[in-house]
Amino acid sequence: MAPLVWLITGCTSGFGSLMVQQILSRGDKVIATGRTLSKLSSLQESGAAVLQLDVTDSQQSLNATIVKAIAIYGRIDVLVNNAAYIQTGAWEDLEYGEWLAEFDANVLGVIKVTRAVLPHLRERKAGTIVFLSSRSGWYGDAFCSAYSGSKFALEGIVEGLRWETEQFGIKTLMIEPGRFRTKFLSPGNLRTKQSHIPDYEEASRNFIAYLAQNEDGKQPGDPLKAVEIILDLVRKEGVAEGKEVPFRLPLGRDCYETIKEKCEETLKLLKEWEGVCTSTDLPRKE
After folding, report:
1. Helices in the chain by DSSP H: which ranges?
2. 88 Cβ neighbours under 8 A, 6+ residues apart
3. What is the rounded CA–CA span in Å between residue 240 and residue 235?
4. Element (H or E) spanning 8, and its range?
5. Domain range for 231
6. What is the C-alpha separation between 249 and 233, in angstroms, rounded?
7. Averaged over 5-15, what is the pLDDT?
């Protein structure tokens, strides 16, 4: 296989940083991007090209950044939409601006970056777009509604994109990680909001404490294993060799079990309520 050219958002830590290192180790080229250019210096020293890119910038600004990215190697073969963050808090505590900021980064930012790259892939009639969703794109946990909502939205818009663009030779991959041991829940990345509404206050405090004591740095998933699978799927080697690469793939036992349980519950509901669900059609004309 000829070396691929990857562009990845959110490379200052976590999956993004690991992905850059593993891509380089496989002989591909990569353009690592992030909001703060200085935080990408170690990746640049490893052989990656780097660009400043903030997914919340304007469409015009992101279009210009992608033009610069394409000029580096003459093309982009793979776009990985990785940048995201999590805002926690009860519905009644999160202000409109906080909801908007969550969706701006996790949904609208993804839309803008993808829109900037799509004409290039469509013209070449080739390419792969990888979207990092989440277990939270299937299941909404208490105090995580803003983040879950953004990932549920991502699942829908990407599924639509898949059907729009597959005719142009563009492959779409939706990766749904569970809880992996990155810095995603570290104090520098996680945005928490303690409730001061009496009815929520204790549960909110317990939730924040639980994340700090039992989740941050203690997640069960190995991010390196996840990254290796993602690269295999794109390159059609390793675990993906000789297989039809799926549109979406959950990663992590916790994500697998959550999705399996939800699917089983949904099938059970449909069976039990089929008569009601299908009773709303107008009478058929004979």
Report:
1. 14-25, 41-46, 59-73, 96-103, 109-124, 145-165, 198-210, 223-235, 253-272, 274-277
2. 143, 144, 146, 147, 190, 191, 192, 193, 207, 208, 211
3. 8
4. strand 5-8
5. 5-272
6. 10
7. 94
The one-letter code for the residue type at 285 is K
- Does residue 122 fall inside a structural domain? yes
Q: Is 147 a catalytic residue?
A: yes
Q: 282 in a domain, yes or no?
A: no
* Per-residue CA distances from 123 to 8, 47, 205, 247, 278 (Å): 20, 28, 51, 22, 44
The tokens for 183 are 């810095």
Query: How many whole angstroms separate alpha carbon 126 and alpha carbon 229?
Result: 21
Contact call for residues 48 and 32 (beta carbons, < 8 A): yes
Coil, helix or strand for 191? strand
Which pLDDT value is given to residue 210?
85
Provide the greatest CA pair distance for the chain.
73
For residues 99 and 96, give the distance between their C-alpha atoms in angstroms, rounded to a whole number: 5
pLDDT digits (tens, 9 = 90+) for 94-141: 999 999 999 999 999 999 999 999 999 999 999 999 999 999 999 999
Active-site pick, 73, 85, 139, 147: 147
- Token pair for 104: 């701006």
CATH number for the domain that contains residue 162: 3.40.50.720
* CA 146/CA 193 separation, integer angstroms: 12
Question: Whole-structure pTM over 0.85, yes or no?
Answer: yes
Neighbours of 236 (CB within 10 A): 14
